[in-house]
Amino acid sequence: MYISGSDGEDTTEQGDGWLRILLYVAFLLLLGSALARFLIRHTGENLAPWVVSLAVALAVLYLLDPLLGRRPTTLRHIWLGTVVAVWMALVWLAPSFGWCAVPLFIIGLRTLRPPAAIALIALVTATSVTAHLRLSGRLDVDVVLAPPAIAAIAVAVFVQMDRQSRRQRELIDDLIRTRRELAATERREGILAERQRLSMEIHDSLAQGLSSQQMLLQASDRVWDTDPATARTHVRTATAIAEHNLTEARRFVHDLAPADLADGKNLDHALRTLADRETGDRLTVLCHIDGAPTSPLPDRVQSTLLRIAQGALANVREHSGATTAALTLTYLDDQVVLDVSDNGHGFDPTTTHPDDTPTRGPRGHGLPAIRTRTHQLGGTLTIESLPNEGTVLSAAIPLAATTT
C-alpha cells in the first residue's frame, strides 16, 4: 500500500512499515512456538530433522518479503507459492504449525487479487482443518470452526485497514493537489503583482520622463529657427531629464529607491526637485511643505508619496491642460497628506469606472496606480474635481500603520 508523492509516500510507508514489522514478529513467534511444541512432544522422532529444516526454510523465505518489493510481480507470486507449499508440508507433518496461517492470509491479500486471495485463504484454511482432524482422529467442532473463524476475522481486519489506508491515501492526494494548486495560484498572484508594480514604476518614472522630453523637443523644434537660444535651453533640459531617466531606469532595474531620494535626500527635497523639473513653458509647478515630521518617515512611505506625486503630475501635464499645479505636503500627528492640485479643465469623478479609468478616452494607468500605492500603505485617496474648475488629488498615509 503506497502512493506517489514525497509527503504521502513517506506517511504511508511509515504506517505500513510498522504493520510489516508486527507481522514478521508475529509470524516468527508463532513459528518458533510451534517448533518448540513439536520438539518437546516428539523428541527423537525421525520427522524432527525434516520439521526443523522446513521451519528454518519457511522463516528464511518469509523474511525475504521486503527484498521482493511491494508490486505483484511474477517473482513475488512464485515466492508466495513457495512459502505456502513449505507451510503446507510443515502442517502435514506437524499440525501445530497451522497457527502460522494468519500472517499468510495477510500476505495473500496484499499480493493477489481478491478472487485469487480468497481461493488461497480457503486452501490454507482447509489444509489447517484437515491436518488437525487427522491428528485428533475424530470430528471436533472446535477444529472445524476455529480456523475458518480466524480466517474470517483476519480478512475482515485486513479489509478494514486497507479501506482506511485508501481513504488516507485519497486525503493525502487531495492535500498534495490542493497545496500544488495553492502554490500555482500564489505564483500567478505574484506574477500579476510584479507586473502591476512594473507598470506603476514605468508609468510614474520612465514614461513621465519620456513624455517631458517629447514636449521639450517639440517646443525646441517650433522655435529652432526663430529663437535658437530658447531651443537650446529646451534641448539641454530634455538632456537633463534623459540623464535623470537613465538613473531612474538603473535604480528601477535593481529595485532601489527613486533617484530623487538617493544620497540621504528626504521627501521634502525630492518634491521640490520634482516641482522644479516639471516647471516649463506650459506648466508651472509649486511646492509647499506644511509642518515637519516628528520622526523620519519610513523609506517606503517617502518612495510611495514621491511616486504618487510623479504620477499625478504626469496626469496633469498630459490630460488636464493646466498652467499651474501645486504639490502640498502636510505633516499631521497621525498621518502625512500629499495634495496635488491644478487649474486644468478637470473632469467628473462620478463618470469613472471602478478602476478609476475615465469612461471616455484611452484606458489609463495613472489613477489606478496611485490608488493602489495608497491602499498598499493603508491610506486613503480622495479626488475632487469639476469640469473646467481644476482637480485636487489628496493621498493620506497613516503614520502609525506604516511605522508598525
TrEMBL record:
<dbReference type="GO" id="GO:0016020">
    <property type="term" value="C:membrane"/>
</dbReference>
<feature type="region of interest" description="Disordered">
    <location>
        <begin position="343"/>
        <end position="365"/>
    </location>
</feature>
<keyword id="KW-0808">Transferase</keyword>
<dbReference type="GO" id="GO:0000155">
    <property type="term" value="F:phosphorelay sensor kinase activity"/>
</dbReference>
<protein>
    <submittedName>
        <fullName>Histidine autokinase</fullName>
    </submittedName>
</protein>
<dbReference type="GO" id="GO:0046983">
    <property type="term" value="F:protein dimerization activity"/>
</dbReference>
<dbReference type="InterPro" id="IPR017205">
    <property type="entry name" value="Sig_transdc_His_kinase_ChrS"/>
</dbReference>
<feature type="transmembrane region" description="Helical">
    <location>
        <begin position="84"/>
        <end position="109"/>
    </location>
</feature>
<dbReference type="InterPro" id="IPR050482">
    <property type="entry name" value="Sensor_HK_TwoCompSys"/>
</dbReference>
<feature type="transmembrane region" description="Helical">
    <location>
        <begin position="47"/>
        <end position="64"/>
    </location>
</feature>
<feature type="domain" description="Histidine kinase/HSP90-like ATPase">
    <location>
        <begin position="302"/>
        <end position="400"/>
    </location>
</feature>
<dbReference type="InterPro" id="IPR036890">
    <property type="entry name" value="HATPase_C_sf"/>
</dbReference>
<keyword id="KW-0472">Membrane</keyword>
<dbReference type="InterPro" id="IPR003594">
    <property type="entry name" value="HATPase_dom"/>
</dbReference>
<feature type="transmembrane region" description="Helical">
    <location>
        <begin position="141"/>
        <end position="159"/>
    </location>
</feature>
<keyword id="KW-1133">Transmembrane helix</keyword>
<feature type="transmembrane region" description="Helical">
    <location>
        <begin position="21"/>
        <end position="40"/>
    </location>
</feature>
<keyword id="KW-0418">Kinase</keyword>
<dbReference type="InterPro" id="IPR011712">
    <property type="entry name" value="Sig_transdc_His_kin_sub3_dim/P"/>
</dbReference>
<keyword id="KW-0902">Two-component regulatory system</keyword>
<dbReference type="Pfam" id="PF02518">
    <property type="entry name" value="HATPase_c"/>
</dbReference>
<dbReference type="Pfam" id="PF07730">
    <property type="entry name" value="HisKA_3"/>
</dbReference>
<keyword id="KW-0812">Transmembrane</keyword>
<feature type="domain" description="Signal transduction histidine kinase subgroup 3 dimerisation and phosphoacceptor">
    <location>
        <begin position="194"/>
        <end position="261"/>
    </location>
</feature>
<feature type="transmembrane region" description="Helical">
    <location>
        <begin position="116"/>
        <end position="135"/>
    </location>
</feature>
